[in-house]
Write a structure and sequence with these properties.
GO molecular function: peptidoglycan binding
Order of helices and strands: HHHHEHHEEEE
Domain LysM: 104-152
Organism: Vibrio panuliri
CATH class of the domain at 104-185: Alpha Beta
Number of strands: 5
CATH topology of the domain at 104-185: Nuclear Transport Factor 2, Chain: A
Pfam families: LysM_OapA, OapA_N
Structural class: alpha+beta
Largest sheet: 5 strands, antiparallel
Protein name: Lysine transporter LysM
Radius of gyration: 38 Å
Strand order of the largest sheet: 1-2-3-4-5
Distance between the termini: 99 Å
Length: 186
Amino acid sequence: MNRRKKKTQQVDYIQLAKDKVSAIDWMKAKQGLQSRWAQLPKLHQRALMVLVPVVLLLMLIPLPQSEPNTEQVEPQRVAISVNTQSLSEQGEPKTQPLQSDQWQEYTVKSGDTLAQVFRANDLPMADLNALVKVEGSDKPLSHIKAGQLVRFKIKTDGTLDMLQLEKSSKSVMFFRLSDGGFAQSK
């Protein structure tokens, strides 16, 4: 067995490129290019006559070398407040009860959707989905308007208990059923 490594052959890429260029039939290529140019719309021909020289010019012009910023910035100290109490020292978190015996009110602003009203008042989106299922054909939830009053009560677990939409002369009330769904009263 011959274990000698075979020498890699040196390729003269310049001569290879010259051979490929000399093999091109320039007259035939010129005629093909002219026929394709004639197929282009006049607007495209004009655009190419302007854009091609501009692109070539931009490729040839060297870009200015930006000098690195030699100015050094002094380090600054920033005060950060850090909670240094351990979890055992902090104790139980103090939570406010979510239940409210009174109605909460929200006046609809221009461009508001009911989903935005729910988000602004931290109401569960699952309750909004349940309300839409029982909305009815008059669509009071889908057609809220700027200036309309939305009143609601929240249960102790943070879910919506009642929702009332007031228009100029009439009011629509949605209330939670024992199965967790909603019903509508006019």
